[in-house]
Amino acid sequence: MRYKHFTNANVDVSALAVGTWAIGGQNYGAVDRSDSIKAIHAMLDQGVNLIDTAPCYGNGASEKIVGEALAAVPRENVLVSTKFGLLPDVYSGAYKKVATYKSIMSEVESSLMNLNTDYIDFYFVHWPDVNTPIDETMAALSTLKKQGKIRFVGVSNFSEKQIEDAQEYLQIDVQQPPFSMVNRNFVDLMKWGMERGIDSMTYGSLGSGILSGAIRTLPDFAPGDMRLTFYDFFREPKFSKIMELLKTMDQIAAKHGKPVAQIAINWSTAQDFVGTALVGVRNEQEAMENCAAFDWQLEDDEVALLNAELERLEI
Questions:
Q1: Where are the domains of the chain?
Q2: What is the pLDDT along the chain (315 residues), one digit of tens a residue?
């Protein structure tokens, strides 16, 4: 495993992290709880030291699974990241963005209980709440830091301006934007953050699974599946473009005798502006294959070929 030093947080983080959106079991296909815990332990055994979750991943289910996994390992050996600010609306069933002082204080207690821990390493504002003054949100996080309930402050899906506004009141240690071979929309934001010591935990690192190469025809996902509603990878014309990209990835994978997913992980984590790549895992086999991506590296000409394909296909 390779590690990167996070500047503002002043901690070393594995270049690959456990992403747990899918194991929440809500709108992301079938999930086996036992397999999920074994997958997390397999990642940790391979040197991964960060687990990322959120209360809205299955309405607390993901956090509870992470809590079960944490019970079997020394807490000080694992960095835990979770979030706040997305609450279920009892009337619509959708999530609403709430980052008030009162709500944050309530949410953190719920997360600590779900995670079966006394503190959270990285605590993220999940999405900007435009209806709550940022100083109120930062005041809550400052209080939690003083209480020792959180160590570092993160923002997810924030713009440069929103991060600058937040930093008037409290240091932002890390940000969490989407990034992968098929989603490079926030490269400038990550580079901007890196210059200011705000390192990136990137989500969607395997394009919601499409960069694993396991899906080669348009899938018939259930209505409401997050892979359809949150991402555009499984919709045309992007789906066909990614299928073309996979042909090049197949060639490189065959040359090295490696799974296609490792091509994507190698490419992503080699970017200097990527602190760690969050990758979802459902079982031990996926965990082992993903971690094995760090046993080798893409050659310069292979990186150039992949970059050229991305430009040609306009992905």
A1: 3-212+259-297
A2: 999 999 999 999 999 999 998 887 655 556 789 999 999 999 999 999 999 999 999 889 999 999 999 999 999 999 999 999 999 887 877 889 999 999 999 999 999 999 999 999 999 999 999 999 999 999 999 999 999 999 999 999 999 999 999 999 999 999 999 999 999 999 999 999 999 999 999 999 999 999 999 999 998 888 878 788 888 999 999 999 999 999 999 999 999 999 999 999 999 999 999 999 999 988 999 999 999 999 999 999 999 999 999 999 999
Residue pair 6/275 in contact by the 8 Å Cβ criterion: yes
Residue 195 CB burial class (10 angstroms; 0-12, 13-18, ≥19): exposed
Tokens 């953050």 belong to 193
- On whether the pTM is more than 0.90, the answer is yes
CATH numeric code, 3-212+259-297: 3.20.20.100
Q: Which residues are catalytic?
A: 57
